[in-house]
Amino acid sequence: MRSFFLWSLVASLNVVHAEGGATKTKQLVIYTSRAEYLLKPLLDRYTARHGVKFRYMKGKAAALVQKLISEGKNTQADLLMTVDAGNLWFAAQNKLLRPLKSKQLEASVPQHLRAADLSWVGLSVRARTIVYSTERVKTQALSSYEDLADKKWRGKLCLRTAKKVYNRSLVAMLLEVHGVKPTEAILKGWVNNLAAPVFPSDTKVIEAIKAGQCDLGIVNTYYLGRLLKKDPAYPVRIFWPNQSSYGVHVNISGAGIVRHSKNYQAALAFLEWLSQGEAQRMFADLNLEYPLASKAARNAIVQGWGDFKASNLSLSRIGALQKDAIKVMDRAGYR
Ligand code: FE
Fold it and tell me: Fewer CB within 10 Å of terminal CB in the chain, N or C?
């Protein structure tokens, strides 16, 4: 596997002295798959508040996990920050993350959005939901993920590739709710209803709906949020499915402390900071996601989508079902 890593030194000009009780660690190293513009403002804020600087290495989640495996106890990494419980669960399975002791994280991060041993924790919540053309779909026709398998949607559905962990986690949820056979039938229905070959990104799915190639799809809401930010009249909208059953599939962006980190206390203090207060507001706002606490302030675009019932299925369980999800997607012809 070829992988590309990029070291970035986050230099901050307005470093202040560490506040009372802060640790002696002056630098933390983060391995991350997150885009720089989503991460750097948070790191800069923490540097300004607590005097700890950061170095981060960017790469795809799977490549970063492989790097941590090969580096073993010689790694420089203190934290792994990435998206989707599937990725974090996989890192934890490979014993790359350190179980944590933190009353504060236990209080800030809802139980279903973290590992039981706190080896990884969610830091923002993302909803994977149905989006539809405002020109061609009446919301009364929409109801659930399962309903997208109905033949009334033949030739009208767009989906992202089954290779993306987001879809594997969504299917893992269906497996947990319905079991194998019914999930396979739902996925076959989706595949039968496809208007076009699967797309490489959520944004491409939304653009295909706008272009009239299909009428509806399943995406993470922040991708539509980005398009709506540029064009408030963008003719695609959010629908919250399964509101009378298990709720909308939610996942996380999150982090864990690397098992061989030499800066455990400082890394933990940073994670605790991320999980509450101003960091939560920034974290959710930067990517138009949801904060961990449902009552925390939301971005105006996100607020406009209204409240919804979210699934509270354990993301650890969804991590454990990734392999089964891959198999059932393959059997159903969802590639
Ligand atoms: Fe994403």
Answer: N
